[in-house]
Design brief:
By secondary structure, the protein is of the alpha/beta class. The chain contains ten helices and nine strands. The chain binds guanosine-5'-triphosphate and magnesium ion.
């Protein structure tokens, strides 16, 4: 069989997480219209068969490339660097609607000689054919780019040609993960991310960027098949606390209710979700507090 690792990278908001979810057919990464949604390396595993040969393709979703402005940003960019190590290919995602940016060219020039690079021109559904053709032409001018595939991650359009290009990059190998496993993320991590996703949607301005989620409890009740999940939504300023809670607790209730729905789908059981809001001053610049919330630069350096 063939098996290997593919790193999905690109600028913030290009649609990388939407793409990994569509390719895997499961929600492994949260998605939002805000840039810098993904903060960790996330695995998504696809098992299949092409031309009579079985394969296992392990995708690594990574945070969007941006200029880090705090320690969390440093952690995110380090995750990209680590994600790109020892992979068999790079799937570089560009938002075709925004067009090819200077940073996209920079990435291509810097990395393409090290690993085979396939470019996905994503959000095909949102651009004209002329815009798409122009972008394809610009990218194919780079000898380093092995293939350019226009696609829509959101609509699930043109995903098979991406898989064909990537399959060709896989070396002979063995099955690395059990067939039924589609990610290596823990339930706790997925629960924290689900809550963060809802906060990203329901909160405004700079507040969502400073949100962290800590799961205090994730337990099945002894008497009934109900998961009890308690979590802290951590904000970076005291003044943000009241905003996350909302008038009479309304915003927090909305976050909890949306998250609970997804968590019930994820676990297949009923979920009792209790959310608290805590302020941890400037946590995105504190290595100690970041570690508490599951972001540890040192972990990545190992
Ligand atoms: N129209 C359109 N929108 C898309 C498509 N793919 C993703 N999006 C939207 O683009 C936004 C960003 O999607 P994400 O998947 O979170 O992007 P990302 O690259 O993972 O972003 P970061 O993790 O912040 O770097 C969301 O609003 C998606 O719904 C697509 O094919 N078409
Ligand atoms: Mg993402």
């Amino acid at each position: 069989m063939k098996s290997g690792f593919i790193c999905i990278t690109g600028l913030a908001n290009a649609g990388k997480s939407t793409l990994i979810n569509s390719l895997v057919g499961e929600k492994v990464a949260i998605v939002s219209w805000r840039p810098q949604t993904t903060r960790n390396k996330i695995l998504g595993i696809v098992n299949g068969e092409k031309g009579g040969e079985n394969f296992q393709m392990v995708f690594i979703d990574t945070p969007g490339i941006h200029n880090a402005k705090n320690h969390l940003g440093d952690y995110m960019m380090k995750s990209v660097e680590v994600g790109l190590k020892d992979v068999d290919g790079i799937l570089y995602v560009i938002d075709a609607g925004k067009g090819i940016q200077r940073e996209d060219y920079e990435f291509i020039e810097k990395h393409a000689d090290t690993k085979p690079l396939i470019v996905v021109l994503n959000k095909e559904d949102a651009v004209t054919k002329v815009t798409m053709l122009d972008a394809i032409q610009k990218l194919t001018a780079f000898p380093q780019v092995k293939a350019v595939v226009p696609a829509s991650a959101k609509k699930g359009e043109n995903l098979e040609p991406i898989m064909d290009e990537l399959f060709a990059l896989l070396p002979d190998g063995v099955q690395m993960f059990p067939e039924e496993m589609f990610t290596d993320s823990s339930m706790r991590f997925m629960a924290a991310e689900t809550i963060r996703e809802k906060a990203l949607y329901l909160l405004d301005k700079e507040i969502p960027y400073g949100i962290g989620v800590y799961i205090n409890k994730f337990e099945m009740r002894e008497d009934k098949p109900i998961y009890e999940i308690d979590a802290d939504i951590v904000v970076e300023k005291q003044s943000h606390k009241a905003i996350v809670i909302g008038k009479g607790g309304s915003t927090l209730k909305q976050i909890a209710s949306a998250a609970r729905k997804d968590l019930e789908e994820m676990t297949g059981e009923r979920v009792f979700l209790t959310l608290y809001v805590k302020a941890k001053l400037d946590w995105r610049n504190s290595d100690y507090l970041m570690r508490e919330l599951g972001y540890d630069i040192k972990d990545l350096k190992k």
